Amino acid sequence: MHPSAGAQLNQPAVVRQAPTGAATAAPAPAGLTENAVAATTTGALAGASAAQTQGQQRLARLLDSVARQEPKLRWAIGDREDGSTVLATDLASGWIPPHIEIPTGIKLLKPGSRRKTLDALLGETTLTAAYTPGQYLPPAEDAQPTQMSIRARDTEEVEDLGWELSQATKWRDGLPRLAHTLAKAASTGTGYLESEVELLRDHLATVADKALGDYPDHVDTANVGNWQLLATIDALIKGEKTAANYHFAWFQALNLAVKGEVHR
Question: Angle formed by the axes of helices 194-213 and 221-238, to 10°?
Answer without folding.
Answer: 150
